[in-house]
Every structure is written in structure tokens, then in C-alpha cells.
């Protein structure tokens, strides 16, 4: 069954949604919470196919939740409910990969139809990735039989693929990229690339992407007169509040404090990783 998570800070709307006849369309409501932070915790610990969330919630709103889901690069679709028919919300929803944007008041049939279509989209993505994984396995098996060099084909492919991954991140980190867009560009499944990156670097794609973005942001804080929101947008992070949060997590100070002090350093392990990938990407040994 499709697993649905509901997040809305209005009790009666939340109850109304979970009281619908979801079994009729093969959907199981696995949780109903009143804010985005609780929804995030469930998504981190359970398999969720569809998230139906209000756009305005305390702690973490629907847009932030959608961004979090997008960066996970899994198989979760997000549907946002809102009473605000404003272009800025629709634009933010689209840029964060939201499946659909429903205006309140919404009738039950429209909500259920949207969830059903989102679930079908999730299923199609899973099937596509399974087909790609099978194709990868077949190609690898065929090539390994012909391998005669000292290095195995797996080792050579890993090196080549990691160089391509690094090149893609360096060339596109200022854009709205994710593990899914990387997978599309390399014709691999997100799951395969996620495992490869974790195995080779001990870090996730998002951790590496964020570190690259913040390294450039720190350089711009030191060397330019750009305002913080301009720097945030220039490195691919549209939300200045989120930018400040991840910057402080990485450097121990806010961007403004960093600009004033100009002394804090990035996480040493990630710094070494980025430097090493720079060397690998340029052909150094």
C-alpha cells in the first residue's frame, strides 16, 4: 500500500484528511502531525511515499519540508495545501520539486486524486530505477569478463564515475541540483550513486554539495561586498535562513559573524575531501 504522511497544524483539517476512505485507493496513513519538524523525523525513520502538508506550519513550513524531501533524493512525493494563492509560494513549491500545489478549501475527492497520482509517479520512478540497476549490473558483468588490466573494471568505473560526479558538482553547484539530477545526467539510478558516493567518500551527496557551496560562500564573504542573501543565492541556496543554519553548522558561526571575524574554518574532513577530489578531477596523483 502507498504510505501517506499528513502534516497540518489545524486539528480539524488534519482529522478530516485522515478520516477519508484511504483504503479504497490503496493508501495507508502512517502518521498525522501538526508541524514540519515532526514530519521530518518520521520521514527520516520510515519509508514514506507521499507527504500531504500545509504550507504554513510552525517550526518548519511546507516549503522547507519539501526542500528537505528533495535533498534526500528518495522516492517521496510532496503535495502542499495552502490558503495563499500567491505566485511566490507556487514558485517556491515548483523549485523544490513539489508534486502538486492545492488551494484551500479543497474537496476530499481532489485531495485523494492528487495523492493517488503522486503515488503512481513514485511507483514509476521506482520501476525506472530498478530497470536501470539491472542494466548497470548486466553491463558491468559483461565488461568484467573482458577485463585484463591490473585494476578491476569496478575500480576503474568507480574512479571514472567519481570524477564525473565531482565535475558535475563543481560545474553546477550554483544551480538547483540534487542527486536525482546528477543521476539523470549520468544515466544511473539515484540509489546506485548514493551508495557509490557514500562508499568512496564516507559522506552523502548532500553533505559534499553543501560543503562545496559553503566553501564558495565563505570565499565570497571574505573577498566581496556582496550581501548575505546575494551570496546565498549565488551558491544555489535560495532560502537565506536555511543558508545561515547550514553555514553555522559547518563553520561554527553565522555568515555575518564569519564576515566580521574572518577566522573560522570548515569541517576539516570535508575540506580534505574537497581538496582530494579537486586533485582527482584534475588528474593529479
TrEMBL record:
> Residues where 4-aspartylphosphate occurs?
54
Looking at the record, the residues that make up the HTH araC/xylS-type domain are: 163-261
Q: Which CDD domains match?
A: REC_YesN-like
Question: What's this protein's name?
Answer: Transcription regulator hth arac- type
Keywords, alphabetical: DNA-binding, Phosphoprotein, Transcription, Transcription regulation
This protein's source sits in the domain of life called Bacteria
Native organism is Lucifera butyrica
Q: Name one GO biological process term.
A: phosphorelay signal transduction system
Q: Which GO terms describe its molecular function?
A: DNA-binding transcription factor activity; sequence-specific DNA binding
Q: Which part of the chain is the Response regulatory domain?
A: 3-119
Keyword DNA-binding attached: yes
Amino acid at each position: 500500500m502507498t504510505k501517506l504522511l499528513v502534516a497540518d497544524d489545524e486539528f480539524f483539517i488534519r482529522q478530516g484528511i485522515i478520516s477519508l476512505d484511504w483504503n479504497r485507493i490503496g493508501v495507508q496513513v502512517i502518521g498525522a502531525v501538526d508541524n514540519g519538524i515532526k514530519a521530518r523525523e518520521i520521514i527520516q525513520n520510515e519509508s514514506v511515499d507521499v507527504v500531504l502538508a500545509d504550507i504554513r506550519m510552525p517550526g518548519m513550513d511546507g516549503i522547507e519540508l519539501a526542500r528537505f524531501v528533495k535533498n534526500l533524493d528518495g522516492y517521496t512525493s510532496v503535495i502542499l495545501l495552502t490558503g495563499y494563492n500567491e505566485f511566490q509560494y507556487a514558485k517556491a513549491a515548483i523549485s523544490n520539486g513539489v508534486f502538486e500545489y492545492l488551494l484551500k478549501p479543497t474537496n476530499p475527492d481532489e485531495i485523494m486524486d492528487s495523492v493517488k497520482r503522486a503515488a503512481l509517479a513514485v511507483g514509476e520512478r521506482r520501476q525506472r530505477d530498478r530497470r536501470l540497476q539491472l542494466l548497470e549490473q548486466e553491463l558491468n558483468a559483461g565488461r568484467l569478463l573482458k577485463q585484463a588490466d591490473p585494476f578491476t573494471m569496478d575500480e576503474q568505473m568507480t574512479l571514472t564515475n567519481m570524477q564525473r560526479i565531482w565535475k558535475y558538482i563543481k560545474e553546477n553547484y550554483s544551480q538547483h541540483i540534487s542527486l536525482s539530477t546528477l543521476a539523470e545526467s549520468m544515466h544511473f539510478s539515484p540509489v546506485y550513486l548514493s551508495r557509490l558516493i557514500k562508499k568512496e567518500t564516507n559522506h552523502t551527496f548532500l553533505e559534499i554539495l553543501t560543503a562545496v557551496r559553503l566553501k564558495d560562500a565563505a570565499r565570497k564573504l571574505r573577498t566581496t561586498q556582496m550581501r548575505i542573501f546575494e551570496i546565498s543565492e549565488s551558491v544555489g541556496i535560495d532560502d537565506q535562513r536555511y543558508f545561515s543554519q547550514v553555514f553555522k553548522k559547518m563553520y561554527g558561526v553565522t555568515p555575518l559573524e564569519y564576515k566580521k571575524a574572518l577566522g573560522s574554518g570548515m569541517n576539516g574532513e570535508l575540506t580534505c575531501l574537497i581538496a582530494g577530489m579537486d586533485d582527482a578531477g584534475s588528474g593529479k596523483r
